[in-house]
Amino acid sequence: MSASLPATEGFDPAFDEFDTWPVGTQLNALWQSQLAAAAVVSGALPALTRAVEAALPCLEAGGRLIYAGAGSSARLAAQDGAELEPTYNWPPERMIVLIAGGTGALLQAVENAEDNEAAAQDAVREAHIGAQDVVVGIAASGRTPYTIACVKAARERGALTIGLANVPDTPLLAAAEHAVTVETGAEPISGSTRMKAGTTQKIVLNLLSTTLMTGLGRVYRARMVDMRSRNAKLRTRAVRMVTALANCDEEQARFALDATNGHVKPAILVACGITAEQAQEALARTDGNLRRALKNLGLATARRAT
């Protein structure tokens, strides 16, 4: 491997005859490579833990979660970010994705955009990134100029910065305050980092956003209690959550949800025996933390579902 070539751009000789293999053999080899890549994520958990613990106070203070990247990395980030509002009722204005080439690059590749450092600096400035914000830069090689420039500019403006790369000791990781490395090596199809590297990036983003939302009180007993009931499936899920967590029947759960305009957290409190107004006040006193609200009210009846 050339010292100037990142491992993600390398060649895996085990796949040298890949195009001659039967489809079943190809699929099995690709599957095994995906499993091996996913297993590598465990080594990044200590660094990811530190990053999450550092990010939580920023978000608790009203900061935004901001992803930055190019190509496949940015598309994965956008996918993760788009799920935060429907899953956790995270305000959309507090989730930003800075993507090389702009939003048009989500559906069509704009390959030369990843080299545009000036565009990255402009994007950071236009987003008014500041001290309470958390900026996560993602790049398989750890060398993408756009992503590095975003992280550097954000850090200069006081934001907490996290770098995620699939190659160690890279400029992106050096630029970020918190470096998360998941070494995936060469891809089955040489240079196609949407594969092993992309899989690990998706996993890390899942872990990052889920633990952040949990730490912010938007998860209670493994339920998405900040979810908004906007369709039939979600309304059924909301009833199920209230029924399980308030130890009530479905009729009581529906009544509580109607009284709270479909909001699960206050509905759980209402189903436990207080009014909707009291529920809102209790949650306001705990910054929306349901567990603390239940404890403060002495409503220890919410149970773990079997």
TrEMBL record:
Q: Which SUPFAM superfamilies match?
A: SIS domain (SSF53697)
Q: Give the matching PROSITE patterns.
A: GCKR (PS01272), SIS (PS51464)
Q: What Enzyme Commission number does this protein have?
A: 4.2.1.126
Which keywords fit this entry according to its UniProt record?
Carbohydrate metabolism, Lyase
> Record keywords: Lipid metabolism included?
no
Keyword Ribosomal protein on entry: no
Which domain of life does this protein belong to? Bacteria
**What protein am I looking at?**
N-acetylmuramic acid 6-phosphate etherase
Q: Please give the biological process terms from Gene Ontology that the record holds.
A: amino sugar catabolic process; peptidoglycan turnover
Family annotation (InterPro entries)? Etherase_MurQ, Glucokinase_regulatory_CS, MURQ/GCKR, SIS_dom, SIS_dom_sf
Where is each SIS domain found? 55-218
GO molecular-function term, one example from the UniProt record:
ether hydrolase activity
Question: What species is this protein from?
Answer: Acetobacter estunensis
